[in-house]
């Protein structure tokens, strides 16, 4: 069985950033990644200082190379389960067995989960095909690239129409030509007045599909058959965390249903940390990388604190330091 100080589950910006910090701290680290990053459809990554416009695949490739260069182990696969165990040896420590779907098991003292989230988008023809290309969700990630073009904003579920309206007001900052598609949801008089006051067009008909021509989004088709020409469309997806592993470990949740972590990513379960979109739906790539770095420092400090009493006992007995405490 392979034994590690830390196993990082998820090899995106948060996981690789954490692994880089930990390997530079001379920790024995494994990163397990399924190879399905959330931003895979995006051609470029924006707003990351020093890497603005870089394809996200290139950022991850560089990160993997850096982690491997410091001795980190990069494993392709999916974690099936994480269970508590007691590490054997001269000094028993609490740890975890990380079981992979291929049947292998990693034993580790600490776990960092950075498995991200998945975006649930409207079930309309064309949505999945254009997702991350010209059907977009984050204006800070993509707004500048579609600035001053005819833009649309899709309304979502009727009980979340206020969220979609707020999104439309935000998108208005990047273009003077913005249309809000209510998709049949009713607006209050105040909501409609605010949209009109900011020169945001309102279309009340239901949307039937996104129109795609020559592999580009060209408009939004309505129930009546009318097509409203748009160069790009924004939608606020429903964010669903990939937190099954954390839930099965018994990690406590916020009232929102998301797993609760403290300022450094520590969950309610001793030895388990989490970072990035798995616990923070608002985290962009640069934010996730920072959270991973902060969690890594906290984890290393936690390991040092665990080793201190063992070192004292060894000193009093005249025994050598255990390898993991050197």
What would the keywords be for this entry?
single chain, 326 residues, alpha/beta, FAD/NAD(P)-binding domain, 2 domains, seven-stranded mixed beta sheet
Question: How would you portray this structure in words?
Answer:
- With 326 residues, the chain is of the alpha/beta class.
- It folds into 2 domains: 2-118 and 239-325, FAD/NAD(P)-binding domain, CATH 3.50.50.60; 122-236, FAD/NAD(P)-binding domain (3-Layer(bba) Sandwich).
- The chain is built from 8 helices and 17 strands.
- Strands 1, 2, 3, 4, 5, 6 and 17 form a 7-stranded mixed beta sheet that branches.
- α1 runs parallel beside α2 (56-69) and α1 (13-24) packs parallel to α8 (285-317).
- It starts with a strand and ends in a 9-residue tail after the last helix.
- The model has no long low-confidence stretch (mean pLDDT 92).
In brief, what are we looking at here?
This protein is an alpha/beta fold.
Topology:
Elements: E1 2-9, H1 13-24, E2 29-33, H2 56-69, E3 73-76, E4 79-87, E5 93-100, E6 105-113, E7 117-120, H3 127-130, E8 135-136, H4 139-142, E9 151-154, H5 161-171, E10 178-181, H6 189-197, E11 200-203, E12 207-213, E13 216-222, E14 227-229, E15 232-235, E16 238-241, H7 244-249, E17 272-274, H8 285-317
Parallel strand pairs: 1-2, 1-6, 2-3, 6-17, 8-15, 9-10, 9-15, 10-11
Antiparallel strand pairs: 4-5, 5-6, 7-16, 12-13, 13-14
Helix pairs in contact: 1-2, 1-8
